[in-house]
Every structure is written in C-alpha cells, then in structure tokens.
Amino acid sequence: MLASITTVLPPEITGVIDTLSPPLLERMEEIRVRVNRPLELIIDGNPYFPAYIVTATDAIHILNKISKHSIYALEEELKQGYITITGGHRVGLAGKVITEQGKVKAIRDVSSFNIRIAKQKIGVATPLMPYLYEKGRWLSTMVIGPPQTGKTTLLRDLARIMSSGCEEKRVASCKVGIVDERSEIAGCVHGIPQHDLGQRVDVLDSCPKAEGMMMMIRSMSPDVIVVDEIGRMEDSEAVMEAVNAGVGLLMSVHAFSFDELKSRPSLREILSYRAVKRFVELTRSNGPGSIKRIVNEMGEEIYREEGVRR
C-alpha cells in the first residue's frame, strides 16, 4: 500500500516512516509535510510528530517526483490543488497561489503537502446490502458523515459490489458510472482506475459532478451513478435529472446527520421529492466507516449501531 507513496518521498522521510510498527503503518491515514516544520503523521485521526524537521530540499524532491520533473505537465492539476499518484493516493498542495482575472492559475512555491493514503477495504460494504438492495435493484443512497469517516471507502466498495454482483446473495451485476471529480473514488492515473471496482465500471475522471452525471447518462447508459461529496445547487439539479431518467444514485455528502441535511437549501428538493431512499450515517466511534444508523426516505430509522429495528 505504501510502496507507491514512498517512491515520491525523500529517503530521510521514508526512513522515519519505516521506523513505525506494522500496526501503526496500517492505521496511518495522512502524511503531512511542511517546510521548516515537523513531519506530521495522522494515525487513527490523531497527530503524531516524529523527530524530523522538513527541509526545502524535501519539498523540491516530492514536487519533482509527483510531477515527474515536469511541473508544466501538471498545470491543470495544480489549479485544483492536488495531484493523484499511482495507487490512488491524493497529494494536496499549499503554497503561493497565482491568480489570473480572479481565478486560480497555479500554485507556486509549494511549502505544504498532504498525502492522503487511499485504502481499499474489500467487503466493508457487504453488511449494507440487505438495506440498500431491494426487489432486484439498488435503492438510491446517500452516505452521510463528517470528514475522515470513511465515506469514499464505503462508496468505492459499494461500487465494486454493484459492478460485480454477488451470486451468494442473488444480487445481479449492473452497469456503474463513476463521476470522480476529485479522482478519489477510482483513483485514476492516466484514466485507469487504481482500485478494484469490478468489471462493469466506467469512470469520468476529474470531471465536474453536475456535467459528468449528464454526460454519463447520455453516453454510457449506467444503471447506477456514483458521485462523491455533492452539495452545490447544480449537483442537486443533476441528481434530480438522473432520478427522472430512471438511473439509480449512490452519493456522499459532508454532514453530521440526516437531520442536518434538512437545513441545506441545495438538498431541499432532493429530500422533499424523496428521490433518495436510504441515508447511511457514518461515525468514527469504531474507526472510519462505522455505521451509526440507516434511515429511509421517510426519515424512519431501519438500522442502528446497537442492532436492527424491524
């Protein structure tokens, strides 16, 4: 998992990471590199500071590695503030922002890197199947949770199950279209997914969600569309278009609860139309991906962490 990350890190930082025990490495979520400040590792959501001060030379090394010594080739990615590397890991960047006519043109003098470690957890979504699959079809579902609760990991595994099917549970495979605006679900590099998403997946990488959903419906005729972190008004309008076209939806949203969603103007139409049939609330109580509860389109609780309510 870390091999594709250590190839972009300076030997000094790799050496520090190599001193960690295997259990800590397994639970590491982020590597944060800031020039002239201590190296920071996020493990189980908590910061850990090894005895190493990052140098400007370290930053140049990382930038050269992730850009393959051609910053200009990554100009579009730099506008977005992150680069996806082999393995599906995302490297966030911060530094001096260059603007042109009020819009971000590039980031120069990069002084901070945030390497988010992409972890594919095969089977993590399997327990959800009885609640999200009904009468031969997948119900449109919204995964709810604050940052770092495993929303994208869950979306990724659900997409894999949908695409592959599950003979044991009599779940047929279906055509899945992923609109991956931030290259996090599929983790594409040169258009090729770095994660196992099954055989029947098509990906629009680095494509704005609202436009991508419409493109996917017109060009690839998916049974289900998967998108990460909806929230803008145009996202909601595209969701309603997809619903009216008879396409199932699997999406995530930043929120602490289903109740919080009700106050979002951009999601009001989706909720009032009852276009989404299942809402899965996530928590970190037992680590990322812990399911707090599931509610239906009426707001009725059908599953809670302590057990199932029939």
UniProtKB/TrEMBL annotation:
Annotated InterPro entries: AAA+_ATPase, P-loop_NTPase, Spore_III_AA, Spore_III_AA_AAA+_ATPase
Top-level taxonomic group: Bacteria
Alphabetized UniProt keyword annotations: ATP-binding, Nucleotide-binding
GO molecular function: ATP binding
Family matches, as SMART domains: AAA (SM00382)
Classification via SUPFAM superfamilies: P-loop containing nucleoside triphosphate hydrolases
Domain AAA+ ATPase: 137-285
Entry annotated with the keyword NAD: no
NCBIfam families, alphabetized: spore_III_AA
Protein name: Stage III sporulation protein AA
Source organism: Sutcliffiella horikoshii
